[in-house]
Amino acid sequence: MDRELPRPDEIWRHFKNKLYKIIAIAQHTESDEQLVVYQAMYGSEGIYARPLDMFMSEVDREKYPDVEQKYRFERIE
Q: From CA 41, how far away is CA 37, in angstroms rounded?
């Protein structure tokens, strides 16, 4: 993977323009798959987990042709 991995306390923007705070990179107990655990910075501030590969993937241009952001999630500098 060419991109830097998310780290705790970083803020990342989803391509639908919502902000999330990284809590941790976790490891699935059965499959050893890495998961990103993150918290919404809006609404009820829910906590979510998503496979690292999916978190770092590019936006699906066929499904979302008008999105300007290249990746599903991008770090806020």
A: 13
The predicted-structure confidence for 19-40, as pLDDT tens digits, reads as follows 999 999 999 999 999 999 999 9
For the chain, the maximum distance between any two Cα atoms, rounded to a whole number of angstroms, is 38
- Strands in 47-51's sheet, in edge-to-edge order, are 47-51, 34-40, 19-27, 11-14, 73-75
CB-neighbour burial class of residue 76 (10 A; exposed 0-12, middle 13-18, buried 19+): exposed
User: What was the pLDDT predicted at 1?
Assistant: 57
Q: For the chain, which domains are there?
A: 11-75 (2.30.30.320)
Once rounded to an integer, what is the mean pLDDT over residues 6-22?
A: 98
Return d(Cα 35, Cα 6) in angstroms, integer.
Answer: 11
